[in-house]
Design a protein that fits this description.
The complex is a heterodimer of chains A (about 350) and B (about 350).
Chain A: H1 2-36, H2 41-46, H3 52-62, H4 68-80, H5 94-129, H6 134-148, H7 151-165, H8 177-182, H9 190-197, H10 200-237, H11 240-247, H12 252-289, H13 295-304, H14 308-336
Helix pairs in contact in A: 1-14, 5-6, 5-10, 5-12, 5-14, 6-10, 7-10, 7-12, 9-10, 10-12, 11-12, 12-13, 12-14, 13-14
Chain B: H1 3-9, E1 18-29, E2 32-44, E3 49-53, H2 60-66, E4 75-83, E5 86-87, H3 93-99, E6 104-107, H4 121-132, H5 138-151, H6 168-180, E7 186-190, H7 198-215, E8 218-223, H8 226-232, E9 235-240, E10 243-249, H9 250-255, H10 260-267, E11 314-318, E12 321-324
Parallel strand pairs in B: 3-8, 3-9, 6-7, 7-8
Antiparallel strand pairs in B: 1-2, 1-4, 4-5, 9-10, 10-12, 11-12
Helix pairs in contact in B: 4-5, 5-6
Classes of the chains: A mainly alpha (about 350), B alpha/beta (about 350).
Family (chain B): Belongs to the ABC transporter superfamily.
Main location (chain B): membrane
Subcellular location (chain B): Cell inner membrane
Amino acid sequence: MASQTTSLRAYALSRLVLAVPMILILLSFVFLLMRVAPGDPVAAALGGKVSQEVLERKRAAMGLDEPIYVQFADYISDVFTLDFGMTITDNRPVLEVILNNGAATLELVFFAMVIATTLGILLGLITGRLRDTPIDVTGRLFGIFVYATPVFFLGFLGQLIFGAGLNWLPASGRASPMVQYTLERTTNLLVLDAIIAGNWTALWDVVRHLIMPATTLGLLITGVLLRMVRVNLLQTLQGDYVEAARARGVSEPRVVYKHAFRNALVPVVTMIGLQFALMMSGAILTETTFNWPGLGNQLVRYLNNRDYTGVQGIITFFAVVVVLISVVIDFVNAWIDPRVRY
Amino acid sequence: MTTANRNASGNGDGEPILSVRDLRVWYGTAKGAAQAVDRVSLDIAPGEAVGLVGESGCGKSTLGRALMGLTPQSAAHDGKIIYRGQDVLAMTRRQRHALRGPEIGLIFQEPMTRLNPLMRIDDHFDETVRAHEPGLSRAEIKRRSLETLGHVGIPPTRFHQYPHEFSGGMRQRIMIALALVLKPKLLIADEPTTSLDVLVEAQILRLLKDLQTEFGTALLMITHNLGIVAEACDRMAVMYAGRVAEDGEVGSVFANPGHPYTRELLRSTISLSTKQLSHIPGSPPNLVTPPDGCRFHPRCPDAMQVCAQKVPVATHPRPGQRVYCWRHGPDDRIPDGGEQPLQQEFDHVDEA
């Protein structure tokens, strides 16, 4: 038993170490992409609004007059010291933008993921068990529908029906103005903040604001997960070890859950990790639709205004998050499936 | 092997532990129903080792699965499988679960994929024993499991390991131990050594033989290897295209094969005296549209007119040997001129 935990720990450590070069490669790509974009970032953002002299000073302050390799070294060391600089257009520290709006995105993506995994795995299990029945067909059609429908369309539909029509849920924003300004911020994750503050009215308000955007974003992934869980379950149910377990007289519910279902989820975990990364981009659309003050929303604004540092900082953050998620997924996989550790 | 020998290894009281009567199993396929098992009758006495031989795809494995009610949902069946006075096919779900394991155990052909890769060996044993004796303590389950694993030569130090940490031969021994920990009265071994090398094969066969003598377990050995049958079995049944062609004492069948198919099978085995490889021209028929009459007649060198027309009936050319072949009669059932040789061309293109 002891050797098992050690090898799991060793595996996790090696994955963590490997994440460092992965992040470095990603950062190089981000850096290169930013330089390949034509035009001077400072001139693009502020051109015509300030004098040539101010432009030069701004450029020097950002280190843009240095040779490219010095700029690269500066960028890398800045990232590792979490110093992303100031945004050009609204002169805010990029780190502050990431912490504020990143929390909003994280909250949205997290709850969307909870909805997606719960619904996707549950429906996948049901449709797989009831293969070729009307329930199975309906479930699969639902899966295709939510996967194929664009986020903004589903979002507008929800806003029209549950917001404007029935007036059940707020159509946009993270919280009502009252809560927005009075709730004490500790983590910037409003659900958590409301719980910490013990403010139950605020919690209810925040949750009501979360329901529609999180569901809209979550449904996108639900379809993918549903179909994947269903197909995997059908496959494992035909599996050799499932037949062997039946031949030993293991009860049918146990055969289905302990052998078929659990094994069917192994590739799904990897899928969830990949979808998490996809959701970050899916979140941009959702955030725009629901006026959610997240990082995606902010990224679009900086892109439109050609705010070079803002865009670079946020993309860097996304890249690092994706790498970290893949490390976590590797670890979870190794924890579930012992074969991965070798 | 003689009758006396058979009585020595089995209890020999004549009352079979398992008796199959007119069993039919068919699968629905896109082209129609495939008759995997067609009117098979078979008896296994307590403690007896029966070999079930035939080419690939002749219904051996389906028969083995059917004996414990393990045919796929898409399969339909007919006939009777009487296990100690109870019809397996008429059992409730609960009765069938109680049957699988403590009464009839099954060992599979490919051991590599038969253990759940996410479960440790101890979890497999725990689950198996608990399914049949829920009240047992953890320590008792462990003691019993380790004892059984000891029988098959797996050391206790490896009890907590995962399946992927074992070789194919070891996994097969673990599978055997998983079947034996419930002390089944009948063990069905479906080509248990096909995917293993010869040394491991010998080990596994010796193990099965030992178990049989030690615990009095009856054994149904499904194989296409006649050598294994000669070595490990008391009686044998030869299957062709879903039907039993011949069965009887191993020694008597080997010495006087009554069915041309058995004879050709025996001729195609390789031994030291083999100078030229022999094979049976053609391949087993499609089970959706099998040939009329005797299913072997298109490949049979001795085929007569009647063989293509009427299904052969059971004949007993020697005591304890049953042959389904018109060459052994009965003469009064053969129509006039039915004994004329059948003109046929062997299809040498798709030989098996």
